[in-house]
Amino acid sequence: MKSILTALVLSLSLSANAAKHLFSGSDTMAGLLTDAIVASGMDQSIGYVGGGSSVGEKALVAGEINMTGMSREIKPEAVQQLKALGVVAKEHVIALDGLSIFVNSSNPVRGMNFSTLTKIFSCEYTNWSQVPGAGKTGAIKAFRRNDVSGTTDTFKSLVGIKKFGDCVTISAETVDIAEQTSRDPDAVGYAGESGKKEGNRAIGVAKTGEGYVLPATSTIRNGSYPLSRKLYVYEATGARKANRAEQQLLEQVLDRSFMDPIVQDHDFVTID
Description:
Layout: H1 2-19, E1 21-25, H2 30-39, E2 46-51, H3 53-62, E3 67-70, H4 76-84, E4 87-98, E5 100-104, E6 111-113, H5 114-121, E7 141-145, H6 150-159, E8 169-171, H7 174-183, E9 187-191, E10 200-202, E11 204-206, H8 217-221, E12 228-238, H9 244-253, H10 256-265
Parallel strand pairs: 1-2, 6-11, 7-8, 7-9
Antiparallel strand pairs: 3-12, 4-12, 5-9, 5-10
């Protein structure tokens, strides 16, 4: 009898997991959207698996999902592919973020401009002694997100980096950037504000010169921080629409009174 009951419990568990709808998207937004799911009491019917903005974008185009979280705008080619299917990706801005440059807390460097960042991540600069105002020596250990990351797309686009150098280590998740910069005095990496961890810090950034601006609520909102960006949720409309679980979650995510406290808990910035 015990084995029969065990098999029944296992069968019910597998059925429940099979019924749970999973959707992919920005890794930066993983904690934010997961907490929104839990807070809305929907964690038995829907789940967020992250993977990167490009992963979510491709799944949206393929019809595997009808909503996705993205840390960049949907690409024009994806818009056209959806249009050919009679689908429109409706855009919702749910938060703002400052793509931050993190270094170890012991690193004395005050800030970097786009030229310095380009030279570090293209491996023209390989020692901290080459970085203006760094005040330290030692091999630069640069870390970046992978190529399916919307954060990588944003970083390359805003800073003007064409190609990363071979000296830059690829990290799959934001938490990896946070971990490396919090424990290694020579590490530097970019991530959303959620990459903040005890042991690392965000430095100031300038487009040119040394007028460094730190990421903060005010500078991200007014755009004076050069690496400010929006965080999006896209939903399929037109010939394809969100399923019941997706629609219920969308209603919660788009409710500012529900979502803004979660946005702030994850160190993102509310829209206004």
